[in-house]
Design a protein that fits this description.
The structure is a single chain. This protein has helices at residues 43-46, 69-72, 85-98, 112-123, 141-147, 163-169, 175-189, 212-225, 252-265, 301-307; strands at 31-38, 51-56, 81-82, 103-106, 131-135, 153-157, 200-206, 230-235, 270-272, 297-299. It is α/β, with parallel strands linked by helices. It has a single domain (31-294), classed as TIM Barrel. Strands 1, 2, 3, 4, 5, 6, 7, 8, 9 and 10 form a 10-stranded mixed beta sheet that branches. Helix 3 (85-98) crosses helix 4 (112-123), helix 4 packs parallel to helix 5 and helix 8 (212-225) packs parallel to helix 9. The longest helix is centred in the middle third of the chain and has 15 residues, at 175-189.
Amino acid sequence: MDYSSCTLCPNLCSVDRRKTLGICRQSDKVRIAWSGLHRGEEPPITGEKGSGMIFFTGCPLHCQFCQNRQISGSDGMNLGIEITDEELAGLMLSLQKDGAATLNLVTGTHFIPSIINALKIAESSGFSLPVVWNSSGYESVEALAMIDDYIDIYLLDCKTLSRSTASKWCGKARYADVIIPVMNAIKAWHPVTDMDRMKGTILRHLVFPGELQSTYDFLRLFAERYKDSFYLSLMTQFVPPKGDPGFPKITDEEYDSLVDLMEIYGIDDGFIQDPSDDDILWIPDFTRDVPFPASFADPDPYFLSLKHR
């Protein structure tokens, strides 16, 4: 698989991205929106100083609720800078020098060939951080198989198993068809999660407003098929599209019902987000050198030198 007839994601648009943008809205040139230390990820990934994040511009999905809509394409924006594979490798090495606990590749699906090349270059110069594949879950199993040898931890979304919920919130009903084969493949490749050794899979699930049954269905399937292989990260920080205040927040009773259900199902490896954490700014502003609250992130100096060259 390469960029000449791109099938790196389930959209299978097959365009020559050297000449035409794909559905991801990106060419064959790697584009990144931000890089630095981020302290808002799950604890094992974050470590003491933070996870070394690289946010790639573009996305195979265009979810209307996307928190990174400035760079995903959901708003029609294309923020970021083009970099070479060698510069991407230099950024990986710079994050390691910063003291990052992990290298965290955010939405890199549509740049897999370039990321593999950059990892090879970085490793030849001493790069050794655990690598996190931070993904929406809307993946091609064949493309993931290309990069799997380089990945230590999958930080994977399972947004929903419902076609109707996927159609409403993820922009594509077939998301619900794609995610199960992806989870099955990753389980086969990484059957055990051991965060002490920085190996395995953390599966994230976001609770959508008015779609609690979808979360109940997800928890049941997770308990039946994946709880012995994956950690679960249950997330409640849904942010409505463009800050629309008309969407209800999860209630205390609903939150308690999810906690109770996890206990009933014996899901005890992982994390659950407290909905009372509503004072945290979840929507980043990628027009700034630091898109996140200062307590959450520090920009990488090498990234800033590339951005402002």
